[in-house]
Amino acid sequence: MNALVRVGNGAARAAPAEMRLRAGNVLHLTRAASVQFHQPIMFRLIRVKDDWTTFDGWAWLDGYQLDTKGNAVARRSVFVQWAGLRVVPQPRPAHSERATRSERATRSERATRSERDACPERAAVPAELAPASLGPALMSGDAVGLSPMRRCPANWISRYRRRGVDHRGGGGPASVRTGWDGVQEVDHRGDGDRLPWGPGGVGLRLVRDTGGMAARGFPYTDLKDFLKTLEREGELRRVSVPVDPTLEISEIVTRTVRAGGPALLFERPTRGEMPVAVNLFGTEKRMAMALGVESLDEIGNRIGEMLKPELPIGFSGMMGGLGKVMQLKSMPPKKVRTAPCQQVVYRGDDVDLNRLPGLQVWPGDGGIFHNFGLTHTKHPETGKRNLGLYRLQQHSHNTLGMHWQIHKNSTAHHAVAERLGQRLPVAIAIGCDPVVSYASSAPLPADIDEYLFAGFLRGERVEMVDCLTVPLQVPAHAQVVLEGYIEPGERLPEGPFGDHTGFYTPVEPFPVMHVETMTMQRDPVYHSIVTSKPPQEDHGLGKATERIFAPLLRFLIPDIVDYNLPSAGVFHNCAIVSIRKRYPKHAQKVMNAIWGAHMMSLTKLIVIVDEDCDVHDYQEVAFRAFGNVDYSRDLLLTEGPVDHLDHASYQQFWGGKAGVDATRKLPTEGYTRGWPEEMTMSPEVVALVDKRWKEYGVR
Questions:
Q1: Which residues are in the 3-octaprenyl-4-hydroxybenzoate carboxy-lyase-like C-terminal domain (predicted)?
Q2: What mean pLDDT is predicted for residues 45-61?
Q3: Structural domains in the chain, sorted by start
Q4: Nearest to 603 by CA among 443, 369, 446, 364
Q5: Residue 305 banded pLDDT, cuts 50, 70, 90
Q6: Which is more confidently placed, 638 or 514?
């Protein structure tokens, strides 16, 4: 099948590597190789969500059947369900592999007969190929099948409309074929009553990448895929000379981050048996690349769409709602039997954490730390899983100190295990794909599974594998996995550690993990992060959380227009919030709501500004905060919980908080003078100066 794209009324052209689809765009698809369908079909997209290159859910297409001269002879409306719509390049076979048109037609005809004879009447698509778990991708040349179709497998509900009559799929035969490019195709062929319009109906083929050249749904399978992309885009530099993981790597990374430099891959650390990847998320650009988007706000918009509470109106509204449900259904992780992370296995006395090039970041650190280990635990009573990102101090060749802060879910799991007098199984995954790595740091509510969230971000399910010695699951494509347990009541001093606050955290007793099994890929890459006072690599992670969770915060507090968590405030010390002010003391109401919103409760300083103030422009925010505030009236002081690492509070875990109302004051708030008008230049003068700017000779 060949694919051409006709945008608007322009000439048809070959589908580019990636195209941004918008309402009104036309896809012109032809299938010359089929003996059953020789004429082209043209679809015009009626509705595309937010002009995304990719989107999930139901799409409504107006379909035009064309004659051989390209004239439309019939118009039909089609509803199809897919996930992750993307136009991607179709790899071409080598010249020797190409078949003539007659050969392809003969093969197609033969395959059609054999599949019709071999497939049972009610054969179903394998579960892993169902649209709920993968969804078909629109690929240049091969992802939209134009095959006769009336009925679909029972686990794929399809709707086609013609002249007011609905055709529902269910139970039709299906066959699986593997093409030259490694793509397995599920070809749905019905018998009996076919759709009466055109030489054949309009079908949709599911595709699964089995390791060939065809594009996958999400661009990264594991950390190595992400590193390759960064290097290709000029966002990664290799350091080929020997470098010491004790302090030297930290100084190199700190200078690189503060210069806005690239991610770094240290190929020859002087300690450990694998290269070290650092500063992967140090910029918002790389953070967006890590999550497979152009802008972090794209993910926030997806979450905002999911949270819209409006009741669906009409059939198209119902289809949109169903699309949201299908997104949710495709999120849970998928268990696999074998995994790359278990290619190499060390047990018992063979376990040696010194194989890992853990870092000592600052001179005063208490030893070697593993700073990007994704820790997995399970609630001993409910069985609910938790994934968290905590620093791990290496005490010996097989023991780790677990820095589990008081507000974290793993701390709660450990407390229950100790109350029951039980060991707590623990698994730590190092070097996961970038989405899973981010999800481990996301401030999710306790009842939302981190891997469910990662599946939402990826647009496809995360593959998980059972650990070898503990009853937990870990990402199948992790670079290194540590399995072990924590004895009830056991503690060892942990720290000091130079943390993201810019200060050393004190020595405190924390639980100890005994590592019994160590698994890894054959050529693993060790992932770590350097912490220090801002700016540092965690800026990208913090900004991702800010943008991704903005719609959720607005859903909880609709008064909020936008917000900013400054990196200088290490993201949990300060929040700048803009509101659409409507009544007296509205700002104070929002302050209290923020202090009651999950992890935002740890915020020490909240500055509220009007909606016309850009919360990301610190100069503008300072102008409002310095000029619009009577600090005897507009300052709200209170007490509440603060971060475990906060050194300024006189008591650990709680302290003082302040809210600053920098909005315009209303007469009903007791302001009796009449708020002055802010100075702005007239639009006519601005336009005149813009037009004549070059004449002035001013640079």
A1: 541-662
A2: 38
A3: 2-209 (no CATH), 223-326 (no CATH), 334-527 (2.30.110.10), 557-699 (3.40.1670.10)
A4: 443
A5: confident
A6: 514
Strands 654-661 and 635-641: antiparallel
Local confidence band at 456 (pLDDT 50, 70, 90 cut-offs): confident
- Name beta bridge partners: 497: 505
Note the pLDDT tens digit of each residue in 539-583. 778 888 888 888 888 888 999 999 999 888 777 788 999 999 999
How would you classify the pairing of strands 560-564 and 574-579? antiparallel
Q: 207: which residues sit within 8 A by CB, 6+ positions away?
A: 136, 137, 139, 142, 143, 183, 184, 185, 186, 214
Query: Length of the chain, please?
Result: 699
Give the C-alpha separation, 688 to 645, whole Å: 54
pLDDT computed for residue 600 by the predictor: 83
CA distances from 391 to 263, 369, 449 (A): 21, 7, 21
Contact (Cβ atoms closer than 8 angstroms) between residue 327 and residue 56: yes
Kindly report the backbone phi and psi dihedral angles of residue 407, in degrees, each rounded to the nearest multiple of 5, phi listed first: -90, 0
Per-residue model confidence (pLDDT) at position 536: 79
Q: Which region holds residue 502: left if phi is over 0, alpha if psi is between -120 and 50, else beta?
A: left
Q: Which two tokens stand for residue 242?
A: 């020997």
**Hey, which residues are catalytic here?**
499
- The CA-to-CA distance between both ends of the chain, in Å, stands at 56
Nearest of 353, 341, 372, 350 to residue 272 by alpha carbon: 353
Count CA atoms closer than 13 A to 479's CA, side-chain side: 28
Each residue of 262-289: pLDDT tens digit?
A: 999 999 999 999 999 999 998 889 999 9
Q: Tell me the helices (H) and strands (E) count for the chain, helix number first.
A: 14, 32
Residue whose entry in the numeric block shows the structure tokens 């589990």: 404
Three-state helix/strand/coil letters over 315-363: HHHHHHHHHHHHHHHCCCCEEECCCHHHCEEEEHHHCCHHHCCCEECCC
| DSSP structure class, residue 50 | G
3 state DSSP class of 581? coil
Residue 608: which of 641, 564, 568 has the closest Cα?
564
Six token digits for residue 618? 């610190």
Residue 99 confidence (pLDDT) above 70: no
